[in-house]
Amino acid sequence: MALDLPVVLLTDPIQADEHARLARHARVVVAPDARADTLRGLIADADVLVVRSRLPEDIFDHQTRLKGVVRHGVGVDLIPMRQANALKIPVANMPGSNTASVVEYCVNAMFDLYRSMQALALRDASDWSDRRAQADRTLELHERTLGIVGVGTIGSALAKVALALGMKVIGLTRRPESLPAGVDPASKADLFAQADVVVLACPLTPETRGMVDATTLAAMKPDAVLINVSRGPVVDTAALLQALENGRLGGAALDVHDVQPIPEDLYPQALPRLLLTPHVAGITRSSMTRMSRGTVDEVLRLLRGERYANLVNPQIYEQAS
Known about the structure:
- Helices cover 34% and strands 14% of the residues.
- The protein is of the alpha/beta class.
- The protein folds into 2 domains: 7-96 and 285-317, 3-Layer(aba) Sandwich (Rossmann fold); 98-276, NAD(P)-binding Rossmann-like Domain (Rossmann fold), CATH 3.40.50.
- The chain starts with 6 loop residues before the first strand and ends with a helix.
- This is Hydroxyacid dehydrogenase.
């Protein structure tokens, strides 16, 4: 009986309860790893593909009956969209599913770089005077300027929190008329020159790839901090590390990287103002539950013969009509 069910291939596991819900309607196959050859070998039997890891560019050359793809997350740069569009394979994502998690990560990173509680925490009674002296050197976010590159769903939500903290917020976006109340539009040059904190929340596109280069970093305030929750290649990593090593930048928090997982020699060990996390800004128990629930909803919708509710590439239907 199970062999007659449609096959749903997961590049990575999803939340257990939602896996069980999906398994009542499909044969669920979890890839043992996300290597290109593994995925190429498994996709031939898949009716639906659920994506949490980067797909090889030729993945769709190996499918035989794929009805659709669902991104367990928001960014679709893990999926070769040009090929999906050419083959008229519908793709869905989970917009807004990790907004709160990413915003909280950014706020946490701002506080950590400006006034780290770990650095101020007492280990024993002898730390009292040293920690108080250290606190005297910390800064407030209040009345500082936050520059957001990419004021979409996440950037807009972050702006609201920053405004509530008494920060001035400026934004770089292709549609300045869409900026939320209280956010002033800024050019790239003005944003990087004026901001005390720069948060990168933009998608990776040909225009944003490498946009934070040596010239851009040199224009920033020497005590400014950079937070990247977009994609690693938006930043010229070598230029950023050089700026930090030379004291020309106050600090950085990087959740995304040029190579993931990161190799041991990608970053130097002795940069105390560099915070590194393993692409977890959007991952909390809450957000993963939302993503898994929404993903299963979309898969079941597709298996019923319906269109996705969160269709990324509607043009495939327009081309077919």
